[in-house]
Fold this protein.
Amino acid sequence: MTIDRRSLLSGILGSAVALGFSRVALAASEVERVDDLISRMTIEEKAGQMTCLADAFRPFNPPNPDAGIQDVKRLAQEIRKGRVGCLFNGIGVAGARKAQEMAVNDSRLGIPLIFAGDVIHGLKTIFPVPLGEASCFDPAFVQRTARAMAVEATAAGLHLTFAPMADVARDQRWGRVVEGAGEDVVLTSLLSAARVRGFQTGDLRRNDSLVACPKHFAAYGAVAAGLEYGSVDISDETLRETHLPPFGASFAAGALTTMAAFSEINGVPATADRSLLTDILRGEMGFRGFVFSDYTADEELVAHGFAEDDRDAARLAVLAGVDMSMQSGLYIRYLPELVKSGAVPMATIDVAVRRILYVKAAMGLFDNPWRSLDEKVEATQIATPAHRALAREAAARSVVLLQNDGVLPIDPDRGRKIALIGPFGEDRDNVYGPWAFYGDPGKGVDIASGLRAAMPDSSLLTVVRGSDIRTGIPGGIDAAVKAAGAADVVLLAVGESQDMTGEAQSRTTIEIPAAQQALVDAVAAAGKPIVVLLRHGRALALHDGVANANAVLATWFLGSESGHAIADVVLGKVDPSGKLPVSFPWESGQEPFFYDRKSTGRPVLDNGSTEYKARYATTDNSARYPFGHGLSYTQFALDQLKVADPALRWDGTIEISARLTNKGSRKGAEVVQLYIRDRVASRTRPIRELKRMERVTLDPGRSRTVRFTLSRTDLEFVGADNQRLAEPGLFDVWVGQSSTGGLHTQITLYAAV
Ligand code: GLC
C-alpha cells in the first residue's frame, strides 16, 4: 500500500485545517524542508528518527535497566550520530538543552529531538487522578486543568505528553481505570478531547503548547477479567462503538500522535496489527500523525508468540504502522538491515519518518529547536500559587458524595470533637495517586493538615491511625475505638494505597483491605456518627461499616491539595458536586460491570421477580452507586419535562427540556444527564446510553430550564458491516441526575420520506 506524500500532506493539513482547532499549517517551505531532509537521510538516520529512548541525561522515572541506554556517554554518541529522534521521561531545561545541542549542533543533519513525558495529571502541581477529575463531568473545567499541566510540563522542557488516556474501562479490577475517564464512551470522548485542547491550545508552535498523545490504541480497557496486559476479545462493532470514539474525538481536537496498546485484540497484538494501526486508524479514522509503540511493546511481540525474534518484531511493528519505537531500540538495530534485505520497503520507512518530521515541523521545532527550553520560564511557571488554587478547586470538584444522612457538612463553628481515624488520616505518601512521579514526594497536603488549617479550634481534632494499609497494628483498633468514643463525629480515612492502582495493579477483588474493614467495623460499633473518606483509584465494592456509614465520600487520589479540598467539603465550604464516572457494584464478582449493559432476554423488571432472571444468585446485577450518581448538600429536583414534538424527522432535530430547581438552603451544582434507549434495533442496544450532560449551579430556591437537542446521529450505533446507522423506531429518553431513574418520555425517529 503506497502512501504518497500529497495524500499524507493533505491528510495532515486536512486533518489540521479540518480540525478547525490546531491552527497548525505546514507551509510549503516546511514540506520542502522535510522532503529535502528525507532525500539526504541515511537509513540509519531514518531509523534514528523512529527511535525514542528514556532520557538518561535527566532521569526522573528510572527506566527498566534492561532496556534502552542508561550510559549517558553512549546515549550522547547515539544522538550525535542522528540515531535518536525522541527522549522521554526526563525533565529539566538544562539537561534538555544539553541533549538538544548534541542533536542540532553535532549531528550531521541537525534534526531536533522531541522531549516527551508522562504528564498524566500534573508535573509538580499534582491534580486529581484523571478518573477522579472525570467526576466533575465538565469538559471546560478539565481543559483548564490540562492547560495548567501543560504550562508546567513545557516550562520543565517537555514538548509532548503521553496523555490523555482515552481507554474506556469496562472492568474495575483493571488497575489503569484510574488513568482514564471511566466506563462511558461519551464522557471519555468529551473529556479526552478537552484534555487534548487544554494541552495543545490552538497553536502547536507556542512554547507552552504540549503535544498530546491519546493512548492506548485501542480497547486496552477491555482486557479480559481486568487482567493487566491481557487479551481482548471483542467484536468489530464493540471496538468501533465503545473504544474508538474517544480517540476519534481526541484526533478531531487536534492530537497528532497516539500510542499503540500493549494488549492484543482477537489474537493480534496492537503493536503488530496493521488492520488496527493502518486500515482503521488511518483509513477509517483519518489520523495523520504518528504512532508510538508502548514501552518495549515491539520487543514483546516475541513473548506474545506473534514474532519469531526481535528482528521479526521490528519488521512486524513497522509494517503494521508503528512509526516510533519506544525504549527497545529495535528500530535502530534492525531497520537498516530489514530495508537492505528488502523485507521492509524504504517507502514504508519514508512514510514513518515523514509523519514524525511533519509533527516536529508542526510544533515549530525546526524553526526553534530551543522551544520550551527557557530557564526563566522554568523558574517562574511551575508549582505557582495559581496552579495550587486550581488544583484545590479541581480536587474539591472531584469529590463525590455517595450517601449522607445529614451528618455532613460538619459545621466548624459548633465546636464538635472530630476523630480522624485510618491509615490515610495523616498520610502524605498516597495523596498524589499513580503516574505522578514528577511530583515532590511528601509535598501533598494530608487530610489532618487540611482539617487543622480549616478548623477554628484544631485541638478538637484527634488523629488515630488505627491500622496500616494492608495490615493491622498492635492496639490500633482499641486506640481508634477509644478515640471514637470521645468524639462527636468520626472521619474514617480508608481505601487503597496508590501502589494498589495504576499500571500492573489489577486486583481480584475491589474492596478495601481486610485490616481496614476490621477497623471500620470496630469503630462503627462505637455508635458515633461515621463519615467515610474513601481513597481509591477505581470503583469499590463496599460492605458493612463502610456501606452503613452515615456518610460516604469518594475522594479518589486528589493530588497536591487533597487535605485542603477534603476539609473544604467536609466542613461545608464547598458543596460536593461530583458524579461517578464508574459504577460501584455490590460485589467484586459483578465485574466487568457497566451501566450501559444489555437487557438480555430475562431482565429483572420492576415487578421484583428474580426467579430465572439475568442476575446472580445472591446479588442483583445493579449498582450500589450507579454511574452518574452524586449527591449535594442541597437538594435538587427535576420537573416539567417537555418534548417540543416527539416525532424526530430523519434529518430533523428534537428539543427536550426539563426544569431543575434547587430546593435546599445552600447554593449547589447538579449535572443534568440525558440518556436514551433504542427499544428495537438490528443489534441489541444498551438499557441506557448517556448522550448529553450539563452542569448547572443554582442558588437556593432558584430554577433553570435545561435544554438538550438531539438528532439522528445521537441515535446511531454500529451495525452490520461496521457501519454506523440509525434505525427508525421508538426510543426511551430520560433526563435525570444519574444513570438510573429520571424523568421519562419517548420519541420516535421517522425514516426519511
Ligand atoms: C508505560 C505505559 C504508557 C506510558 C509509557 C511511557 O508502560 O503503558 O502509558 O506512557 O510506558 O512511560
